[in-house]
């Protein structure tokens, strides 16, 4: 006998029989489909006590052969909580599979369930009312035509939300594909499940523990329906590629309690970071680790309304190596012991974090450290760090945002012990203990927040409780150099707390300071425009000694004096410098409140400055009528000013007020066009080059107008009297009185009223220069007009003097602060 032929025939007979069975079964199911559906709906109504809306119901034996399947398309199930309008379940498709033999005997034995494209919202409202009590209670004597033998459960793209408002717990996750089996025996459900999940949010009392994590679950669960208890046998949990072993229990009959344990398997740095928030995980995911690491988590306690379970996490490294592939940098011999404890997960602010025996070797630089944080809401911080740090190696291993490059080294030996919030109160700051030092050696930093690199930083920072002393801290910023000796007060509070001030009391010495760079750096818009702003958190007292300084055309030397900054104001009781061929000393105040104008008041004493240099440095005061090339001479002056700028250092012209008591010696006025035009009226040929010995006057500026009282100028060719006004819009109204030595050049009829004799009998010619600096005229100043003008100017000048006097500009002094008062922080 040919065995092959027999097997071949048997195979074809089997296919034929199965096909026949499938065909007959399909015909039977099709023929009885309405009866099956009606009987199932009738039986379901015995068990379900909430409305169910279905768009379409079909019966199939092909989908899950040999089971008979009832397929519900577009199904919605109401929740049992009538106060809520939300649905318990909304699904595109729900398939229920039955044992066909038992179905023939009028028993619906459910062996399979499949749910596709669904949202399931399980909720408990604030009064403890649930929305999932949808199964009717059965009497003991009632016959049961439905039983469960769930061998196959399939979930495809199902979004689960568990929202317990009574204790403020939330679980929000989606499974793309989960398969499970369920065995039911005496109110015990034995469940095996495996699937992939996207955990959107697991939180309690507003504290998120897991957000947006991908998980792969292989779980063994036993549910006790009588005792309302869920037991988790050792199950596998994969998070972001790291595997954990989890087991525990959740009970909720009389009160809710939980005991969950999570242990890392084949743990590495990525295993630990996988449970961290997404931003931290991204930063740590770029590292590779080798060696011994461990991670254990336990959550144990009651899920009560007021107090939650206790969370403990133990993790660490032992002789591990952490590698950053992008720069081929490795941290060797890494050790650390970590412990996190939350006595109540509802109150994460009361937790404790301990990191002990942190050690490592980074490119030959060894360090060790310890950190303990007790009570996250009112943190007590215990910290110490000792070791050397090569900045380039550190940057190669860890690249903080905004730091482009670094070199040099740090020697660090510091410790801190205290409550961070004690730093806010002067009375409590003494309880904070800080000691140690940081020594900078040739540090170079390039940062996105700094327009220029910080170079060759050297010096010693000494920690003394909340203050840090600077010992010969020197370096370069752009073209500027600095050397600081002094004290940073309240620095730790400034770094660790929001809105805390910082005090700097130091001696500053610089060989060269470039204010063009420093002021342009402060512009937040990144352009080269100047920007001036004083932080409300800054309190500063500097004694300055600057060899050379640059600001636009201003290049003073030997700059010495004091500067005080407090409450967004800058004050100086005395600054002196050499510039423009002479010496300048000044006192003044600058008030620069945020979103308001920068107000400047100053008293300036000028000695021996070259007037052409003044005009050049001050860019000819933004006018071209009389410029530095027209002037020579030595200026002495006493100046009092009051003015306002915007934060880009643009002057607000209407705010400028000034009193200028000035004298000019060895003066020259060269090629000044208005003087040249006087040749028509004055019998002189050298008006293009006037020299004079000494002139004095008191000039006032107010209301965008320069007021020049009449002054006598004795020149090399004649004697002139000049007065008038010059407005900021370049309108001019000057009056000139000059001796009339010859009447040949004038028309006496035209000049009538503009000539008169003085007390000595000398004929004086009265002229006026009016118009604008670009379009002006020289004409006769008639007799009847000039007296009125003279009287008006005299009256105006007196009013200006009175206004200055009443305003107290001359009496106002720069703010002088006592040292104890200056650094007396307000308690809060």
Would you spell out the secondary-structure blueprint of this structure?
Elements: H1 3-31, H2 33-47, E1 52-60, E2 68-78, E3 87-98, H3 100-104, E4 108-124, E5 146-164, E6 169-185, E7 188-204, E8 207-224, E9 229-239, E10 242-251, E11 257-265, H4 269-273, H5 278-284, E12 288-302, E13 310-324, E14 329-342, E15 352-362, E16 365-374, E17 380-390, H6 391-397, E18 403-419, E19 433-447, E20 454-464, E21 467-477, E22 480-489, H7 491-496, E23 502-514, H8 515-521, E24 538-550, E25 557-566, E26 569-579, E27 582-591, E28 598-610, H9 611-617, E29 631-645, E30 657-670, H10 673-677, E31 689-702, E32 705-714, E33 719-727, E34 731-739, E35 755-757, E36 763-772, E37 775-780, H11 783-807, H12 819-822
